[in-house]
Write a structure and sequence with these properties.
By secondary structure, this protein is an alpha/beta fold. The chain has 14 helices and 20 strands. The strands form 4 sheets. Strands 7, 8, 9, 10, 11, 14, 15, 16 and 18 form a 9-stranded mixed β-sheet that branches. A 6-stranded mixed β-sheet has the order 1-6-5-2-4-3, with helices on both faces. Helix 2 crosses helix 3, helix 8 packs antiparallel against helix 10 and helix 12 packs across helix 14.
């Protein structure tokens, strides 16, 4: 972030202002002209919820809250308003803006600032004139009686964490290969204060992580297995919560080569699960959340080199199961399986994995939500669903019937790595279940992790999905 978010004790008459209000609010204290007040009244009569007044000396932006103030959809509308106002702020090259909570609704104020910040994200590294492209905004000042400085500081951390996840996804594999991803995670650990241990290929071979090694066979870059740990002295949980992130830094499909266009060119995003876990650990460590958490990130690319693993191969996995490979493009589950097996060493309270795992999940619900399934208690799913509403990173729980296991039976091995043409997202999840023996949730983020067209504050490219969802889940329950 090249700007700061600050709590102020007094609003200014000289700075462009975003006002959070209701239709019945009195705007006379804002140094508005009679024409301005008349304009606001006319827009309210037209049932407009976003009003923009552009005067020569300063701008006024008004977001009107609907009647059901506590509804999570109203908070999302505040984020959307923040994003819309941000576009004008950038266009007008404003360097400072103040947000005024005129009706003492701190969550709405925070959500608006969140949408503003997420919407002005930029990835300009590879532009020759990147300095010219940088936004002018340097200060976001917030005037709210009930919104604390601590809440705004935490919001700053969370936005930073989303930016980190977006950055990791947006970097091309020409830079962000598996070793570089591990280096980035090490640097994040040093910055935020969480521990990082990275297994190199020699260590991975010694551990016999067959799934990760098989996918890596077609690559000239060695694999990595990163372990992140945040264990504060006063952690609320004795057994860790483990977050596993799929780290396929680029996926060609291997010998089962993906079609192109509209497929392979976006596959730098196949490590969005890993990016989300890295961003999440940055956030929980910076915010010093009292939770014992472990992150596991297996990383490699998947390429069709002459020695690449092939359809028909049988791979012995870390937990001893043999997998018949029928499609090398079903590689994410191969590396996740080893990580999920490794998680057993920690005797976890709960394991959540995030992965851009299947096109089936994307086709089923688009980029509007994340597919979820697993073996955790329904109460845990309900808590996660509540966090999905709080952050508008919603989840849709798919069925997880035992009958789906029938589709994974192999004639020559313990199981095969694909289940066939139907229920692809579910059979991928059922495959992973074979490598777990603890409460577990699988999040297939293939839809929302990377978008090719901007959607409100979700920018084109990496969205950072999962960071806000899981931060809220941890903070709400621990």
């Amino acid at each position: 972030m090249n700007y700061t978010i600050n709590k102020i004790s007094k609003k200014s008459d000289k700075v462009s202002t975003i006002i959070i209000a209701e239709k019945k609010s009195d705007f006379s204290s804002f140094n508005l002209t009679k024409n301005d007040l008349s304009y606001i009244k006319s827009k309210i009569q037209q049932d407009k919820t976003q009003i923009i007044i552009q005067n020569p000396d300063k701008q006024f932006f008004i977001h009107l809250i609907g009647q059901n103030k506590e509804n999570y959809i109203q908070l999302e509308k505040a984020r959307i308003a923040g994003n819309a106002f941000g576009k004008v702020i950038i266009k007008e090259k404003l360097s400072e803006i103040q947000v005024v909570d005129h009706i003492n609704l701190p969550e709405h104020s925070k959500s608006l600032v969140e949408g503003l910040c997420l919407g002005i994200y930029q990835f300009t590294k590879y532009f020759k004139d990147k300095k010219k492209k940088e936004i002018s905004l340097k200060k976001i000042n917030v005037f709210s009686e009930k919104l604390s400085k601590q809440a705004l500081d935490e919001l700053t951390i969370l936005v930073d964490a989303v930016y980190i996840a977006r950055y990791l996804v947006n970097e091309p594999v020409s830079y962000m290969n598996a070793p570089q991803l591990a280096k980035e995670i090490i640097n994040l650990g040093k910055n935020a204060g969480f521990k990082v241990e990275v297994f190199d290929k020699k260590k991975i071979v010694s551990l016999k992580m067959g799934g990760l090694l098989a996918v890596n066979k077609g690559s000239i870059d060695p694999p990595r297995f990163s372990i992140l740990e945040w264990k504060p002295e006063k952690a609320r949980n004795k057994k860790p919560i483990i977050f596993v992130g799929k780290g396929v830094v680029y996926d060609t499909g291997g010998l089962s080569l993906k079609p192109t266009p509209d497929s392979m060119e976006w596959m730098k995003s196949d490590m969005a699960g890993a990016a989300a876990v890295a961003g999440l650990f940055y956030a929980i460590a910076k915010a010093k959340l009292p939770v014992y958490a472990i992150g596991l990130i297996p990383s490699t690319d998947n390429r069709p080199d002459g020695n690449a693993y092939a359809p028909g191969d049988v791979i012995k996995m870390y937990n001893g199961l043999h997998v018949e490979v029928l499609n090398t493009d079903a590689e994410g589950r191969m590396i996740l399986a080893d990580a999920l097996s490794y998680a057993k060493h920690y005797k976890p309270e709960l394991v959540i994995d995030l992965a851009t795992l299947t096109g089936a999940a994307h086709y089923a619900i688009g980029h509007y939500a994340t597919v979820a399934m697993g073996t955790a208690k329904e109460t845990t799913f309900k808590k996660l669903n509540k966090s999905g509403e709080n952050t508008y990173e919603r989840i849709v729980q798919f069925p997880f019937y035992d009958e789906y296991d029938e589709l994974l039976k192999s004639d020559i091995a313990d199981l095969k790595n694909i289940g066939g043409k139907v229920a692809g997202a579910i059979t991928a999840g059922k495959f992973l279940e074979h490598f777990t023996d603890y409460p577990w949730i699988h999040l297939d983020i293939a839809g929302p992790a990377f978008i090719t067209k901007e959607d409100n504050y979700l920018k084109r490219g990496g969205t950072g999905v999962g960071v806000r969802l899981l931060f809220n889940f941890i903070k709400s329950n621990y």
